[in-house]
Design brief:
- By secondary structure, the chain is mainly β.
- Strand 13 and strand 14 form a beta hairpin.
- It starts with 6 loop residues before the first strand and ends in a 5-residue tail after the last strand.
- The relative contact order is 0.18.
């Protein structure tokens, strides 16, 4: 098997899901056989928004021939990763380079995990929601938009409310009675808005 590890491993983080890794080629005489390529082992150490450490699954990308760089796609935003590089010949892999740590920046969150509308009255509705399964960063706020729908399915004026990120329910007051409302709801990080979920509900006709 090869004798030495690739040197001078550098990681350039391009965005929240993509990084580029560079390395110096090993001297050909240390390959001790036919140079097949280089393998990059990389794994997530932890999410920076959740401190849970679960079973670490190492991923491997193989770059054929005498390439000295490669792209690592499909990374998770706002996470800490480690990687190392090894050279490969027909017999197997050489030793790993020292582990290199890198961090991905924040991304936009996934949609809130649920939105429920309960306790309708003549002029109010109560909203409850769950935080996104993948916050992909630090949540800064939720954005609620809603509008009435009339009997001919035309949409009325859109109202927008910004809600602090630590809230999980809201009572909407001063609504019209016996009216159907459509709700659009999403979460935000400093990077931007995540995908929204929609829901409809009706205030009651009379007490």
């Amino acid at each position: 098997v090869p004798m030495v590890a690739p040197g001078n491993v550098q990681v350039h983080v391009i965005n929240s899901t993509l990084a580029k890794v560079h390395w110096d080629p090993v001297p050909l005489k240390t390959v001790r056989g036919h140079l097949q390529g280089y393998k990059v082992y990389y794994w997530k150490v932890q999410s920076l928004s959740r401190r849970n450490r679960r079973h670490v699954e190492k991923k491997i990308l193989t770059f054929r021939g005498n390439k000295t760089f490669g792209m690592l796609p499909g990374l998770e935003p706002y996470s800490s990763y480690k990687l190392n590089v090894r050279v490969v010949n027909g017999k197997g892999e050489g030793p790993a380079s020292p582990d290199k740590v890198f961090k991905t920046p924040e991304g936009v969150p996934s949609s809130p995990s649920f939105l429920k509308i309960i306790n309708p009255t003549l002029d109010s509705l109560t909203l409850e929601w769950g935080s996104p399964t993948h916050p992909n960063g630090v949540l800064t706020s939720y954005i609620l938009k809603f509008q009435p729908i009339n009997n001919t399915h035309e949409l009325g004026p859109l109202v927008e409310i910004r809600i602090p990120a630590n809230e999980s329910s809201l009572i909407l007051k001063n609504l019209n009675y016996s009216t159907r409302y459509k709700f659009y709801f999403n979460a935000q990080t400093s990077v931007g808005s995540g995908s929204q979920i929609t829901e409809e509900a009706i205030t009651i006709m009379d007490e």
